[in-house]
Amino acid sequence: MGNRILVVEDNEKNRRLSGDVLRHYGYEVLEAPDGASGIGTARSEKPDLILMDIQMPHLDGLSATGILKSDPATKDIKIIAVTSFAMVGDREKAFAAGADDYITKPLDTRELPRRVKALLEF
Questions:
Q1: Is 8 left (phi over 0), alpha (psi -120 to 50) or beta?
Q2: For every residue of 24-62, which 3-state class applies, written as one string?
Q3: What's the CATH number of domain 4-121, 3.30.450.40, 3.40.630.10, 3.40.50.720, 3.40.50.2300?
Q4: Which of 7, 16, 37, 101 is 20–30 Å from 110 (CA)?
Q5: Can you give the pLDDT at residue 75?
């Protein structure tokens, strides 16, 4: 069985694109449309890695990442922070929240699976 990846993304098209790319490379993909449901899914399903959008309504990805990394049950799940608004300091904020990697949108469909594979093997 392949690794399980949770895609937490409020934009359905982006969620579908990420999922399609990851499935193509043999990953099992779980999806969540917002930070709160992402946390719930991470806690119940224990994915190997989470692709976490940073800009989401209600509970943003940085807050969700911090919650997951401070929870003993989910702290070891690898998290890649994803943002379309790459502002100065965003990378640092993502790592400060506990993200293991950081990528920007639009997603590079060749780079994404390489980064995922590298984190899962780390």
A1: beta
A2: HCCCEEEEECCHHHHHHHHHHHCCCEEEEECCCCCCCHH
A3: 3.40.50.2300
A4: 37
A5: 97
